[in-house]
Every structure is written in C-alpha cells, then in structure tokens.
Amino acid sequence: MQAYKDSVTNVLFSGPTLFSPLIQYVTTKVTTDNQLKQQQRQHMYTILLIITDGVINDLEETKAAIIQASKQPLSIIIIGVGNAV
Description:
The protein is of the alpha+beta class. It is 45% helix and 16% strand. The chain contains three helices and two strands; from the N terminus they run H-H-E-H-E. Helix 3 links the parallel strand 1 and strand 2 (74-80). The protein starts with a helix and ends in a 5-residue tail after the last strand.
C-alpha cells in the first residue's frame, strides 16, 4: 500500500476505465506462451493483478473476457482502491 500511496501522486488518472482489452491481451499472451512452453514440456501459470480507482466502464465486455480467460492457466485479481462506485 505504501508503494501505491507513493506513486499515486505521480500519476494522472483518466477515464474511461476499460479492462477487457487488457484481459484479452494477457489471455492471448498466456495462450501463445503456453503453446511454446508445452513444446518444451514446461508449465507456466500467470496472475494478472489490476489495481483500480475507478469504475469498470466496459463491465459486460470485462465479464466476457474473464470467462474466456478462464480456459487458460491465469488468475485475474481486481482490487478497487478508493471510494468510486
């Protein structure tokens, strides 16, 4: 939390807050990386941590992206910081 508090003063927040493009990108990357790792008989697991201070403006798209991502070895953690509703 201290790192967040220290850095939040140096960042300009703006909207809209769209998570689905990020989740789709990470899902594609995980899929591609895992295909390469499987050829090498290695295993990989990814955790995507999103810390946000805003509302999710593409909630339905985000839900769909999370459902699609659930087919991959990927956990998505979204943490809301602040009092946005």
